[in-house]
Amino acid sequence: MEQKWFKDEIFHYEGLDYVEKKRRMINMQSLLLKKLSDYFLEEGFRWILPVITSKITDPLWPDPGSSIEKRIEFEIYGEKVRVTQSMIIHKIIVCSLFEQKIFTFSPNLRIERSERRNTGKHLYEFTQLDFEMRDSGSRDVMSFVERILKRLFKDLIESGIYRKEMECINEDWEIYDSNELENKFGKDWENLVSGRIDCPVWVVNIPREFYDYQDRITGRWDNYDLYLPDIGEVLSGSRREISYNRIIEKMFRDGVKTENFRILLELSREGKLKECAGAGIGIERLLAWITGEKDVSDVQIFPRIPGIVNYL
Ligand code: ASP
Ligand code: MG
Fold first, then answer.
1. 63 CA to middle of ligand 2, Å?
2. Range of the structural domain that residue 87 is part of
3. Peptide bond preceding 62 in cis form (omega within 30 of 0)
4. In the 8-state DSSP scheme, what is residue 45?
5. How far, in Å, CA of 299 to CA of 23, rounded?
6. Which of the 8 DSSP states describes residue 301?
7. Which atom of ligand 1 is closest in space to residue 236's alpha carbon?
8. Which residues line ligand 1 (CB under 6 A)?
9. Would 304 be classed as within a structural domain?
10. The sheet that has 53-54: what strands, in order across it?
11. Residue 270 maps to which CATH number?
12. Cβ atoms of residues 170 and 157 within 8 Å
């Protein structure tokens, strides 16, 4: 069999630079995870562990930003399960039934098309800091995210880790409507925005999955993404759709099978889903931005680049 080393070469590489770089990355990762989890705990969030397999996961459909070529599904104990693409449904349920504010560091498997191997931004396995807040709306989540990220940048600057763009802690981050960006940059706005900004910006009203709230009359989506200069989308989230009729209507519209979402649908029919909103922060992208890495796979110890399967 032909051997493919790709990024595995690190394990056969004696150059100190490479080893030093990975060690630096591990240290930064450790610092970042500590700071973020401290902030969330201080803000009253409960920390939950992730799920890896279940009958429901994020359909990632329809989502103009996603290019999933395969959903990993297999059988255990005679039942079909999927590997987590995001814990969105689990988050909504935990937040509605058990705890007001929750977060998790959730491994997500998204088999992106091989063409994305050269973007420097996509990974087929990554980790999200996924969180959800009950009785909250978009504005609450957006201001919470701005608060903790600004706190993070300030703390990093104080500990000697500096990027010019971190000075954005002193500004209000701008908000753009996705229609506005499409008119300005065309359909490819998602790829162009990050090259044109000096400060993080919010993008709102993005047409996508059934679980994001959409106003029935205006058709406007109550959701948001955060874009970082150079790196691109580092967070996405929304106020959630909790009305049974709306969820069903959108599932049919999108061709999403309802059977696996039985629990979510039952809870919504019984009025047990609470108003909530949340988002997920891509840890590798945030880390790449902080460390100034051009390729997000460089922050992974075991890189997961679309189209490239390594031995480790
Ligand atoms: N984490 C996202 C959310 O909370 C879902 C996603 O991964 O796209 O909406
Ligand atoms: Mg989504």
1. 7
2. 2-299
3. yes
4. P
5. 10
6. S
7. 2
8. 58, 86, 88, 128, 130, 236-238, 278-280
9. no
10. 53-54, 79-83, 73-76
11. 3.30.930.10
12. no
Question: In the numeric block, which tokens belong to residue 136?
Answer: 């909250």
Instruction: Tell me the pLDDT of the chain (312 aa) as tens digits.
Output: 343 445 555 555 556 678 888 899 999 999 999 999 999 999 999 999 999 999 999 999 998 788 999 999 999 999 999 999 999 999 999 999 999 999 999 999 999 999 999 999 999 999 999 999 999 999 999 999 999 999 999 999 999 998 888 989 999 999 999 999 999 999 999 989 999 999 999 999 999 999 999 999 999 999 999 999 999 999 999 999 999 999 999 999 999 999 999 999 999 999 999 999 999 999 999 999 999 999 999 999 999 999 999 889
| Contact status, residue 87 vs residue 106, Cβ threshold 8 Å | yes
312 in any annotated domain: no
Q: How far is ligand 2, taken at its centre, from the CA of residue 183, in Å?
A: 23
pTM: 0.95
Q: How many domains does the chain divide into?
A: 1
Amino acid at 289: W
Ligand 2: centre distance to CA 206 (Å): 10
SS3 284: helix
> Nearest to residue 300, comparing CAs of 5, 10, 53?
10
308 in a domain, yes or no?
no
Query: Where are the extended beta strands (E) located within the chain?
Result: 46-47, 53-54, 68-70, 73-76, 79-83, 101-109, 111-112, 125-134, 175-177, 201-204, 223-228, 232-239, 276-282
Pick the residue whose CA is nearest to atom 9 on ligand 1: 237
**Torsion angle of alpha carbons 238, 242, 244, 246, nearest 10°?**
-30
Is 19 inside any structural domain?
Answer: yes
Residue 232, helix vs strand vs coil: strand
